[in-house]
Amino acid sequence: MNAANLIRFTSLSLIAVLGLLSPAYAEGQKLSNPVSQTKATNQTKPTNQTKPTNQPKPTNQPKPTNQPKPTNQPKPTNQPKPTNQPKPMEEGESNILSPTESSSNILSIEGGDRLMKEIDQAVTSQDYALAVKKLQQARQVYNQLSSLYQQLNSSFTGIDISAADSHRKNALATAQKRDEATYQLALVYRAQNQPELAIPLLVQIITSQNPTRELGTKAYQQLFELGFVKTPFPSQGKK
Predict the structure, then answer these.
(1) How many alpha carbons fall within 13 Å on the CB side of residue 42?
(2) Looking at the domain assignment, is residue 24 inside a domain?
(3) How far apart are CA 5 and CA 11, in angstroms?
């Protein structure tokens, strides 16, 4: 073997040896070089420390419910006011309607009766002007009394039978006296030849009394005599 062949053989042997050594060398390099190492699989990062959970906020304390307000105390019911209590009399009016002086009080049955006596005296003396004046006063007094007693009767009906009956009788009695005074006033007007004043009064009496009652019949007779009505009443043939 010549030198050239020997060198070639030696070179090939060296190359072969180096080829065999290269993988081992490379493997050793990997083992010795931590950088080549797989970066420790991205060095496991420490897991985020579990943050302390938010401390539960204390729940809002329930507000105390509004204390129930005391219900409005029921107002005391108004005591029923006595109907039409008499008002206290003012100075200068004391004892105007005092029972002890009823005989001098014109707004009373006694006061009306007193006027009627004065009327009789005026008619007897033929003082017709005075008689007319007194009769007008008497009619007004009796009419007002009758109205007042009717109101009292209505107020006491169903409450006090005795009081209601008493007021009803007084209302009827004063209404009767009013119609009698009205009849006398109509006669005075007729005596003075004033039928235009007598006729309306006579019609009022018939309306109030009823034609069948004695005073109503007498009033109608006056109308017949004055020629205001043509039909007599009661009709002829009737008792």
Answers:
(1) 3
(2) no
(3) 10
Task: Count CB neighbours of 232 within 10 A.
Answer: 11
Q: How big is the CA angle at 187 (ends 182 and 189), to the nearest 5 degrees?
A: 95
Answer whether 219's CB lies under 8 Å from 186's CB.
yes
Q: How far apart are CA 238 and CA 150, in angstroms?
A: 36
Q: Dig out the tokens for 102 from the structure.
A: 């009823």
The tokens describing 174, both together, are 């004063």
User: How many residues are present in the chain?
Assistant: 239
The whole-angstrom distance between residue 110's C-alpha and the CA centroid of its chain comes to: 45
pTM: 0.56
Q: Is residue 72 part of a domain?
A: no
The one-letter amino acid at 180: E
In the block, residue with structure tokens 């409005």: 72
Provide the H-helix boundaries in the chain.
Answer: 3-32, 109-124, 128-156, 161-191, 195-209, 214-225
Q: How many domains does the structure of the chain reveal? A: 1
List pLDDT tens digits, range 103-148: 457 789 999 999 999 999 998 998 999 999 999 999 999 999 999 9
72 exposed, middle or buried (CB, 10 Å; 0-12, 13-18, 19+)?
exposed
- Residue 165 domain boundaries: 102-225
- The answer to whether residue 134 is domain-embedded is yes
- pLDDT tens digits, one per residue of 62-110: 554 455 454 455 454 444 444 433 333 333 333 333 343 444 577 899 9
